[in-house]
Amino acid sequence: MNWEQAAKSYTDYLRIERGLSKNAIDSYSLDLKKLKKYLVSHHLTVSPVNIDKDTVLQCVYEASKNLSARSQSRLISGLKSFFSYLIFEKYREDNPMDLVETPRIGRKLPPTLSTEEIDMLIGAINRSSLEGQRNVAIIETLYGCGLRVSELIDLKISDLFFEEGFIKVLGKGNKERFVPVNPQTENFLKIYLQEVRPLQKPQILAADTVFLNRRGQGLSRAMIFTIIKNLAVLIHLQKNISPHSFRHSFATHLLENGADLRVIQQLLGHESITTTEIYMHLDRSHLAKVLNEYHPRK
């Protein structure tokens, strides 16, 4: 088995067996490409089946020199996964990454936006243009439904169930969930779908896609980032925000207003409650309020 065969077999496994998204598969593939690049640069012709621990460790060492702790952890995790796959398929008996420890990573939370800041961002959009009406619907949907950017750009018209008050979202690992849509978000989505989108000519592959660009194609992740960054500049927002900031703010605001953590877990589509907890960086005044309200000796 050569590297090309191994890479293809591995990505097929990630897509079919594990049901990972394209973005996740691309990340794992990039980790493998770094190992292949190292071998080429050092004129090594060893195969993925026969490569030894020292060679892999040297690759990790060199590749990690200019990487953050988080990126180092990503690389180590990706290579461990690849060699675990080879063991699973009985191509080799050992994992050369077994004894490699990942660097400690602090929990880095995205900045939270206040409701006032979200209103300011939306207020900065030029609603006289078709793109402006679309962008209002985009921001309202990101925040109002707590979507990941990938979930937003993949949202389908056929997944909107306004009469029932839900939208169907395709999350990580192709897992579907139903998210309630509030009246305000529904209103802006309807305005876009009824008054703006019909003026566009969707490409065949984007016929059912909710949000389109000028060419009638689905929006890219980069485009959503650009829209948000430009709005932040317009209102002179001194925070480094991204689409995920709206999802994080959605969860934080729900919790601060008394929502149950388990409910928030379901809304966000988290498999583990531990994942949900990292979003919840509540201030002490809120913690004190909860304690005073619910403690038996208040």
Fold and architecture overview:
The protein is built from 13 helices and three strands, in the order αααααααβββαααααα. With 298 residues, it is mainly α. The chain has a three-stranded antiparallel sheet. Strand 1 and strand 2 form a beta hairpin. Helix 1 runs antiparallel to helix 2, helix 2 crosses helix 3 and helix 6 packs antiparallel against helix 8. The chain starts with a helix and ends with a helix. The model has no long low-confidence stretch (mean pLDDT 85).
Notable features of this structure?
298 residues; mainly alpha; DNA polymerase, domain 1; hpI Integrase, Chain A; 3-stranded antiparallel beta sheet; 3 strands; globular
Structural class category = mainly alpha
How would you characterize the largest beta sheet? 3 strands, antiparallel
Count of individual beta strands: 3
- Portion of residues in beta strands equals under 5%
Order of helices and strands: HHHHHHHEEEHHHHHH
| CATH A-level architecture of the largest domain | Orthogonal Bundle
pLDDT below 50 for ≥5 consecutive residues: which ranges?
none
The CATH superfamily of the largest domain is identified as Intergrase catalytic core
- Looking across the biggest beta sheet, what order are the strands in? 1-2-3
CATH class of the largest domain: Mainly Alpha
Rg on CA atoms, Å: 23 Å
Distance between the termini: 67 Å
- Tally of contiguous helical segments: 13
List the domain count as a whole number. 2
Overall average residue pLDDT: 85
In percent, how helical is the residue content? 40-55%
Shape estimate: globular
CATH topology label of the largest domain: hpI Integrase, Chain A
